[in-house]
Fold this protein.
Amino acid sequence: MASRREQLQCFDFSQDYYKNVTYHDVATTDYYRRERPYRIFRIPGVSAVTITFGLSGAENVSKVILSLNHCRTTADGVVDIAVNGVPVLPNLMAPRDNFGTESFNLDSTLFNSDSNVLTIQLGSGSPGVYWLSDAIIDVEIEVDETGKLLSFALLKYCMQILTR
């Protein structure tokens, strides 16, 4: 059995047009990256972004990969990431001083076919702020030896106008 990587969705968080993304006490600024806005999480335990999405055929998903272009600043902002209310990356510290992209393998058994909620929240004890620019959700799906999907109706939608 083989697998194939597919992009489920990508987000440019300088934009507000995603129907499946909700911000909670998060501001938008380009103070340190002129003409390349990013989200700033300032209130510990409150500032958050939630992404809701379906994953039809979740039983054939072998991996879910979350990639973030983010920064913790010199104040060492800490975030907690959860999937469907289950903490998956607690006390995460992004690259310091400048934006960097990191990828994280998430436990595919936490996702279901109907509705999934991915939450990135500034930790309640965070000493500083957190900056978020872009995110990408990729899935690895099981395929047969010819490369065809095994009973997987991938809901692939990518709204990609990345801030670069």
